[in-house]
Write a structure and sequence with these properties.
Layout (H helix, E strand, L loop, with lengths): L3 E8 L3 E10 L2 E11 L3 E5 L2 E5 L2 H18 L5 E6 L4 E5 L2 E2 L12 H8 L4 H8 L8 H7 L8 E4 H10 L4 E2 H4 L14 H6 L10 E2 L4 E4 L9 E3 L5 H7 L8 E6 L2 E8 L6 H5 L3 E4 L5 E8 L2 H10 L8 H9 L21 H11 L8 H27 L5 E5 L6 H11 L3 E3 L4 H14 L9 H11 L3 E3 L7 H5 L7
Parallel strand pairs: 1-6, 10-11, 14-18, 18-19
Antiparallel strand pairs: 1-2, 2-3, 4-5, 7-8, 7-9, 12-13, 14-15, 15-17, 16-17, 19-20
Helix pairs in contact: 2-4, 8-15, 11-13, 13-14
The protein binds adenosine-5'-diphosphate and 6-deoxy-beta-L-fructofuranose.
Length: 486
């Protein structure tokens, strides 16, 4: 069977990369060809600081990465793009109307009441099955003063795909994060689109992972197909969870932590809604039943504030110091609104503690320990919620993404959930992106392969690091504060 190489463009909220994946009968090998930082840019406009994405710079980096991939692999068979969810570019006659807004911009909150004046929160959940997050696209669009000027809206991977190929489409897994897609039919829901106050024609045709979007434009070198993948980064990451047992949960750990499991059908019960669980669309029509929990952004934002004076912080050394902390540290609510916007996270943790009469962390190592303990506590309670709502058994937790390299966090997660943690791959998102392209092209005998077969390819390739709950840790005592939603 034929082997081949494809390029995965994976844009996270804190960094982006272009990775070449080689797929053959032994498995999949990855080779990074480009890596670049990403993050919010504050621009003063309409009398306030607005948070944006520098999507033109991202495009420049993506094009440079693709050029490097093609130079090293002239036989490159395809390109696939994924990114973080919900954010979009507005276009008019094919021209971008300003830089996309960042999901951490506070403006989006104004959209919530506008949408809910037309469709109640309960009906929204019944229709789109999504966790309420004020940055869901449906709310962003309702609050966007420029949306009425546009004739097209494209989510970030679709926007880049259109710049690479000239073809506009809405890839379905990422479309499922907008709040505009029906959780049951997986088509645009006209009532939800109407709730934004915008015309339905704004939205492009839906297409599925594995479809060919188009071919690289001649001005960009031509010839190479662009294949749709699970363009929501979390959808691609879930494809590459190296699970060979169906009774597992996953944590896709990066800027955010997406904690949940894969299901065959959405769960739209009152219990699911009360627990604020999401039903996002996965590759092959699977459902990603999960909760969006805060993530390592709390750590990277803390590091950023400590580095503001010009110092450079060594993350490995900082994590080692956090592992050595023996003093008790506060477990704070990582989902508190106070931690949503960019800024001085350690100062906000101190304020959170002061407001509750708690002792704040006293050193950088203690702050980091407090952040990781708090994330692990949130994972344990979220997992319990997911188990209660679905009635499913969970025997192990797979952690994938950049956070799977954080040994302290993985161990704390094992301790607080009382479950074995299997960590890796780090680049699950890029791997899932590569494998969906490889399947679509029929590389290495993968044509028509099931997701389970793709996961076996990953399991053959990477050996996850196993973390066992510490003998002294009592998962049940950590769970006493967990409310049951069953
Ligand atoms: P995203 O795709 O959301 O941008 P990633 O999956 O790339 O995020 O994960 C980024 C995070 O991974 C960083 O914030 C950092 O906390 C963590 N990370 C990266 N490298 C290491 C490392 N060597 N050790 C521990 N954690 C790491
Ligand atoms: C993770 C992610 C997550 C979304 C958030 C906006 O990168 O795509 O699934 O909730 O970004």
């Amino acid at each position: 069977t034929n082997s081949g190489s494809v390029a995965a463009v994976d844009l996270g909220a804190t960094s982006g990369r272009v990775i070449v994946g080689h797929v053959d009968r032994d498995g999949v090998r990855t080779e990074p060809v480009a890596r670049f930082p990403n993050g919010p840019v504050a621009l003063h406009e309409r009398g306030r600081d607005a948070l944006h994405w520098d999507v033109v710079e991202l495009y420049r980096q993506v094009v440079a990465g693709i050029e490097r991939a093609r130079a090293a692999h002239p036989d490159l068979a395809s390109i696939g793009i994924d990114s973080w969810a919900v954010d979009y570019g507005l276009l008019r006659e094919g021209r971008l109307l300003g830089l996309p807004s960042h999901y951490r911009d506070a403006r989006h909150e104004q959209g919530v009441s506008r949408v809910q004046a037309r469709v109640s929160a309960a009906e929204l959940y019944e229709r789109n099955g999504l966790q309420h997050l004020s940055f869901n696209t449906v709310f962003q669009l309702a609050a966007d003063p420029d949306a009425h000027l546009a004739d097209r809206v494209l989510l970030v991977p679709d926007l880049l795909g259109s710049w690479l190929t000239g073809v506009e489409a809405a890839e379905r897994t990422n479309a499922s994060t907008t709040g505009l897609l029906s959780a049951t039919t997986r088509e645009w829901d006209p009532a939800l689109v109407a709730a934004t106050g915008l015309p339905a024609e704004l939205l492009p045709t839906l297409r599925d992972p594995g479809d060919r979007l188009g071919t690289l434009l001649p001005s960009l070198g031509g010839d190479v197909p662009v294949t749709l993948v699970g363009s929501h980064d979390t959808a691609s990451a879930v494809v590459a969870v190296p699970a060979t047992d169906p009774d597992v949960a996953y944590i896709s750990s990066g800027t955010w932590s997406l904690v949940g499991m894969e299901l065959d059908a959405p769960v739209l019960t009152d219990a699911a809604r009360d627990a604020n669980c999401t039903n996002e669309g996965g590759v092959d029509g699977r459902v990603r039943f999960l909760k969006n929990v805060s993530g390592l952004w709390l750590l990277s934002e803390s590091v950023r504030s400590w580095e503001r004076g010009g110092e450079t912080i060594d993350l490995e050394a900082l994590l080692a110091a956090a592992a050595d902390v023996t003093a008790p540290v506060p477990v704070f609510d990582v989902g508190d609104h106070a931690f949503a916007a960019p800024g001085d996270v350690p100062a906000r943790i101190t304020a959170w503690c002061a407001a509750r009469g708690r002792t704040a962390p006293a050193s950088r190592a203690e702050f980091v320990r407090s952040i990781l303990e708090s994330l692990a506590a949130a994972y344990a309670s979220t997992l319990q919620t997911i188990i209660d709502v679905t009635g499913k058994e969970v025997r192990a937790v797979h952690v994938v993404g950049g956070g799977s390299q954080n040994r302290l966090l993985c161990q704390l997660t094992a301790d607080r959930t009382g479950l074995p943690v299997l960590a890796g791959p780090v680049e699950a998102t890029a791997l899932g992106n590569v494998l969906v392209q490889a399947r679509s092209l029929g590389l290495a005998g993968l044509g028509g392969a099931s997701l389970e077969a793709l996961r076996h390819v990953v399991a053959r390739t990477v050996d996850p690091v196993r973390y066992t709950p510490a003998p002294g840790s009592d998962a049940r005592s950590h769970r006493t504060t967990v409310r049951s939603h069953a």
